[in-house]
Amino acid sequence: MTDADARLSQVYEMLVALASNHFERRLEVGDGTEELDAVAAGLNMLAEELAAREQREREVQLRISQAERLAAVGQLAAGVAHEVNNPASFVLANTADVLERLREVSAVLARVRALFPPGSEERRRVGELLDRADVDAALSTSTEMLEESVAGLDRVVAVIADLHAFSRIESEHLRSVDVEAVVNEACKLVQKQASYRARLTRRLGVTGPVRGDHHRLVQVVAGLLVNAIHAVPEGAPEQNEIEVGTASSRGEVRVWVRDTGAGMTPEVRARVFEPFFTTKPTDSGTGLGLSIAAEIVRRYGGHIDVKSEPGEGSTFTVTLPAVDVALAPAPVPSATAVSRARVLIIDDEKALLKVFARLLGVRHEVVLATGGREALALIEGGLVPDVVLCDLMMPEIDGVAVHDELARSHPALAERMLFMSGGTYTPRTQRFLDQHPGRVLPKPIKRADLEEAVARSLAARS
Ligand SMILES: Nc1ncnc2c1ncn2[C@@H]1O[C@H](COP(=O)(O)OP(=O)(O)O)[C@@H](O)[C@H]1O
Ligand SMILES: [Mg+2]
Questions:
Q1: Could you tell me if the CB of 425 is within 6 A of ligand 1?
Q2: Residues near 210 by Cβ (< 8 Å), separated by ≥ 6?
Q3: CA distances in angstroms from 415 to 226, 420, 432, 455, listed in the order given
Q4: pLDDT of 307-321, one tens digit each?
Q5: What is the pTM of this model?
Q6: Prior bond to 310 cis, omega within 30?
Q7: Which of 225, 272, 296 to mutate to test the pocket of ligand 1 (most atoms within 8 A of CB)?
Q8: Which ligand places an atom closest to the C-alpha of 292?
């Protein structure tokens, strides 16, 4: 067998190994012909890449199964919370009421004593009576016990409210959410608290919207910020830093919170997403913050990662899928919002729909329909758009037909229609346009014109 033959058979074995997922095998490079060495080097690169991919895949699987396990625990906890909520609430209310009455009784007793002048026989007898029953001591001990009970119950009710959050996430209607607005609001919430401990800085990259609920996401980011604040010592705000940042790439949006605080041991780091895991004193941590945050983010199709070393600070990174503009959200009727509107866009050109969704999706919730029939079905199914933006020329049911149908079934909505046109009209559409002046946007449409038209239509509505 020549050297080249031996080399070829090694290469063959390597290929067999790769085909059967043994990515750890490597070939020596430099003892064959130039061509065979190049092949060997290429195969080594391939093996490394495949090994790295397999590792990533394993990590993702681990993350998913961990997240599912924690979510199940969360669901169980939410169920318990649901059962405990009512009794806990009325026990708290009753206990607080009894405490209040007891305080009144103490005040009345003091007044009864004061009815009789000091040193008088009556004063002495009243005193004796009260002493015999140990009334003062009983009152003050009872008051103290009730105060402790109320404080304890306050905590129970707060934990229950947190646990409820787990079950409420399920029923939420997801919208497209402006990530920068989320970060800004979260910062505002914790600004004061942070100021005693650290400089709070923002590093905001350009990101598109994500799908979720604005308030929930504020809760997630604010929770991470509060944890970061807790991790840095009080009293030297210029020496500590908390940074919140945003970035996007490859269809994902990332929000991170980095602190220069105490950091975590590997043992703590491994448990932070467990419900009720906390290293804080009982009155300042429930251990629910991160588990709820992780569950919220998971429901929105994302995940939270953590990097931390003791003494080196921590970084929590929330990763969420960027809004896939091709997907129309489920039709759910809702009250109309003034600043943020639900815009139904109808166009048979899918690529154009995507463009419109991207343009309008930052400010507004966008629902897409690829034709008149689909749009009417959405509205029939309960969708209540604030504005309808409709292409005029479409096959089957065109813009005029959509308008006529809505004028019959939803007259108010027909009033809120705007039309887009490529500039060619049939005599019928021309007549229609003459009857509805000022409602046509000629294509191509610039973002500013689009936003302006939507704003105008909203203003006309209210
Ligand atoms: N930025 C951070 N730095 C250090 N430890 C952290 C940080 N964030 C979270 N942790 C750890 O994770 C635990 C759980 O956090 P969380 O679920 O928010 O509950 P809680 O804040 O009520 O303790 C904390 O008690 C703390 O030990
Ligand atoms: Mg917390």
A1: no
A2: 176, 177, 179, 217, 253, 300, 302, 320, 321, 322, 323
A3: 47, 15, 14, 14
A4: 999 999 999 999 999
A5: 0.53
A6: no
A7: 272
A8: 1
Contacts of 64 (CB under 8 A, 6+ apart): none
The CB of 275 under 6 Å from ligand 1? The reply is no
Any idea which ligand is nearest the CA of 293? 1
96, exposed or middle or buried, with CB in 10 Å at 0-12, 13-18, 19+?
middle
- Segment of 97-101, 212-216, 228-232, 279-283 carrying the highest mean pLDDT: 228-232
Beta-strand pair 342-346/440-442: unpaired
CB of 239 closer than 6 angstroms to any ligand 1 atom: no
**How close is the Cα of 323 to the center of ligand 1, in Å?**
29
Please name the helix (run of DSSP H) or strand (run of DSSP E) that holds residue 247, with its range, or none: strand 241-249
Instruction: From 55, 36, 2, 13, select the one nearest 26 (Cα to Cα).
Output: 13
What atom in ligand 1 is closest to the CA of residue 227?
8
Measure 53 CA to ligand 1 centroid, in angstroms. Answer: 31
The ligand 1 atom nearest the CA atom of 316 = 1
The pick from 227, 286, 292 for probing ligand 1's pocket by mutation, whose C-beta has the most ligand atoms within 8 angstroms, reads 227
pLDDT value of position 348: 87
Q: Is 458 in the pocket of ligand 1 (CB under 6 A)?
A: no
All structural domains of the chain with their residue ranges: 3-69, 74-170, 177-321, 342-461
**The domains spanning 177-321 and 342-461 adopt the same CATH topology:** no
CATH topology of domain 342-461: Rossmann fold (3.40.50)
Ion ligand 2 residue ranges (Cβ < 5 Å): 227, 289
How do 417-421 and 365-369 pair as beta strands?
A: unpaired
d(CA 362, CA 58): 35
Could you tell me the distance, in angstroms and rounded to a whole number, from the CA of residue 224 to the centre of ligand 2? 7
pLDDT, tens digit, 9 for 90 and up, residues 217-275: 998 999 999 999 999 998 888 999 999 999 998 889 999 999 999 999 999 999 999 88
Token representation of residue 27: 């070939």
Enumerate helices (H) and strands (E) in the chain, giving the number of each: 14, 12
Whether 286 lines ligand 1, by a CB cut-off of 6 Å, is: yes
Return d(Cα 412, Cα 455) in angstroms, integer. 17
Does 177-321 carry CATH code 3.30.565.10? yes
388 class by beta-carbon count within 10 Å (0-12 exposed, 13-18 middle, 19+ buried): buried
pLDDT in tens, 59-96: 888 877 777 777 777 777 777 877 787 788 888 888 98
**In contact, 331 and 382? CB cutoff 8 Å:** yes
Q: What phi and psi values does residue 155 have, to the nearest 5 degrees?
A: -65, -45
With a 6 A CB cut-off, is 280 part of the ligand 1 pocket? Answer: yes
